[in-house]
Amino acid sequence: MSAVTVRDLSLSFRHTPVLRNISLEVQPGAFFMIIGPNGAGKTTLLKVLANLIASDKGNIEILGKPLSSYSKRQLAQVTAMVPQQVTTDFPFTVAETVLMGRSPHIGLLAIEGKEDVDIANQAMEFTDVAHLADRKLDQVSGGERQRVIIARAICQQTKIILLDEPTAALDPSHQLKIMDLMERLRREQQITVIMVSHDLNLAGMYGQQLLLLKNGKIEKTGTPQEVLTQEQLTSSYNCSLFVDENPITQKPRVNLVPEK
């Protein structure tokens, strides 16, 4: 049984096609990366998988069941969403934010029990934010805040985590911490990770399977070696790129070529 299956998915906004006949399959425990230029439909596809946007046509299955058959609470028990930006208008503490991940399991009006608190503490330990538990969310750095939101997703104890550019605007050190964290989560807890990224080198380094979108259509799917080719990327991104092999990871390395 696949973690996620999509067949012939299409979506338009105000008669403008955004996603066109998308079909994909994500295996359980995979690190699946969605890449592509601006306006390709990456975030829209992720939101459709999270049932935040309804498609015009097509079929989506989550863990072998139609997406439409899940209630909001049931879907939150099997999938967690990590958005690109998190509002801090109402700054809860780190511990309170992480504990919100238990809501799908205890209901809106129920009180968290000891087991819920223990799960939240474990999630904070796993993401290395336990020492920030009493800090307000607006008092931590961008990298720390992103780990807190991932801890909240882990606290949901789902089978699938959807991430929308979690490393955007982070420095290289924090980018690697986030990516290593997701790889560890995938490997140790068999969580399926589906992530949108603009960073082709991070996608090539961590992704097991890549989906390359352009103008709402699939350009290429496959391993990093199959997708991150010089010919394919130059065509998809409409700029000069040079692809070689990273001597440390033996994965494709994408280099920008300046216009002369």
TrEMBL record:
ABC transporter domain mapped to chain residues: 4-240
Entry keyword Nucleus: no
InterPro entries noted in UniProt: AAA+_ATPase, ABC_transporter-like_ATP-bd, ABC_transporter-like_CS, P-loop_NTPase
Pfam families named among the record's database cross-references: ABC_tran (PF00005)
UniProt entry keywords in alphabetical sequence: ATP-binding, Nucleotide-binding, Translocase, Transport
SUPFAM superfamilies named in the record: P-loop containing nucleoside triphosphate hydrolases
GO molecular function: ATP binding; ATP hydrolysis activity
Gene3D superfamilies according to UniProt: P-loop containing nucleotide triphosphate hydrolases
Biological role stated in the UniProt entry: Part of the ABC transporter complex HmuTUV involved in hemin import. Responsible for energy coupling to the transport system.
Protein name in the entry: Heme ABC transporter ATP-binding protein
Organism: Candidatus Desulfobia pelagia
